[in-house]
Amino acid sequence: MAPFNTKRDEGRRKLYDKYGFWWCPIKLFEYMAMARPVVVSDVGEITAYLDGAGLTYREGDTRGLAESILRLLNNLEESSRMGERGRRLILEKYSWELHARRIEQILTALA
């Protein structure tokens, strides 16, 4: 499995280097919608979506990842606040319904 992951990661890095962005996995939004705090690496634009709904760690820093996870596990009140913040963000900014309305507005303006 490691060679597959290495090749996949290499392809992602080429895209990132070429276009200067990183995509945002749907899982992030799914966890936020379920009011779960998230932990993400600081790669690309993904951290811009958090806005207090989780923690970040430096890419490749396994100790930082572990510390972030432990922080959430050891601070349940803080974790709960982050999770609720994520849910609110989804409802207010990132729901499919909101995106559909925005696309409809753009298409209507172009027509």
Automatic annotation (TrEMBL):
Show the SUPFAM superfamilies listed in the entry: UDP-Glycosyltransferase/glycogen phosphorylase
Q: Which domain of life is it from?
A: Bacteria
Molecular function (GO) terms for this protein are: glycosyltransferase activity
Q: What's this protein's name?
A: Glycosyl transferase family 1 domain-containing protein
Organism name: Candidatus Hakubella thermalkaliphila
